[in-house]
Specification:
single chain, 214 residues, mainly alpha, elongated
Amino acid sequence: MVRGRSTERRAEIVRAALEVIAERGYRGASLSAVAERVGLSQQGLLHYFPTKDALLLAVLAERDQWDTGASPRSDGVWPVELLASLVEYNAMRPGIVQTFSALLGESVTEGHPAREFFTRRYTQVRASMAAILRAEYGERLPGGLTPERAAPLLVAVLDGLQYQWLLDPESVDMPAAFEDFLTLLRTPGAPADPSGANASTPPPEAGVPENRSS
C-alpha cells in the first residue's frame, strides 16, 4: 500500500514538473515551484527525486512511455500509418509537446543534463524509423532511398512539424502535413545512387548547348 502511494505521488510530481517546464523551460523551472504545485515542501520533494536532473530524466522517460505503447505487430515494429495516429494524438496534448520541444531545444547546449538522453534517444529513434520503413517498403523506398537514409528525414519531419505547429497552430495542420509527407514517401522517383549521389544526370539547361568536348 505504501509503495502504491509512493508511485502515485511520484507520478503526480512528474505531471507537475511537466507543467512547470512547459511554462518556464528547464532553466527557469525550480524544484520549489514543482513542490508547491503538488503541496509539498522542497525537502519533501527531494524524498522522491533527490536532484532536479533526476526529476528531469523521469519527465523525459514518462513522455516517451506515453508515446511508445504497445505495437500491434508481433515483431514489435509499428506500421507507418500508426505514426500518423501518433501525430494526431500529439496534436491533442500541446502541453506535453511543448515541454518536450523546449527541453530538446535547450539540450543542444553544452552541459545540459538532457543532452545525453536526447543523443541516445535519437540514435534509437533513427534505428526504429529505419525498421518501420524497411517493414513497409523493403530495402528501397519508392523514391530509391534506403531505410537508413530516409530515417533521419522522417524524424526531422516529426519533430520539425511540432515546432511549427506550436508556434502557429492555426496555420500548421500537423496531422495533415504529416500525411502529405507520407504521400511523398510513397511516390516513386529516380533511384538514388548507393554512393549518395543521384544516379540520374540532369538534362542541360534550355538554350545552353551541351559540352561534348573530349
